[in-house]
C-alpha cells in the first residue's frame, strides 16, 4: 500500500519575479513578439511593467497608472502609440531584423 502525503499546493508562476535585468526583459519580450500572439505580447508587457514598477513606468511613459492598468488588462487593445511609449519607458526599442 502506498502512503500519500498532503496534496501539493501549486502557485501561479509570476514571470515578473524573474525579470530582474535588461537582458532577461529583452529576451522575454522578443520571445513574445516571435510568438505572433497579441494577447501574449500584452501579457509579457504587463509582466515587464510590473517587474519595473507600475508607478515608475507610468510616470516615465507619460501615462496615469489607471490608463496603464487599462492598457495592459487582458484582452485590451492598446494603441500602438501607447505600446511605443511603454517600450521607450522600459529603455527598449523596436528593431526590424532580416530573417
UniProtKB/TrEMBL annotation:
Read off the SUPFAM superfamilies from this record: lambda repressor-like DNA-binding domains
Q: Which InterPro entries does the record cross-reference, listed alphabetically?
A: Cro/C1-type_HTH, HI1420, Lambda_DNA-bd_dom_sf
The source's domain of life comes to Bacteria
Family matches, as Pfam families: dnstrm_HI1420 (PF21716)
Among Gene3D superfamilies, the record links this protein to:
lambda repressor-like DNA-binding domains (1.10.260.40)
According to UniProt, the name of this protein is Addiction module antidote protein
Q: Which organism is it from?
A: Rubrivivax gelatinosus (Rhodocyclus gelatinosus)
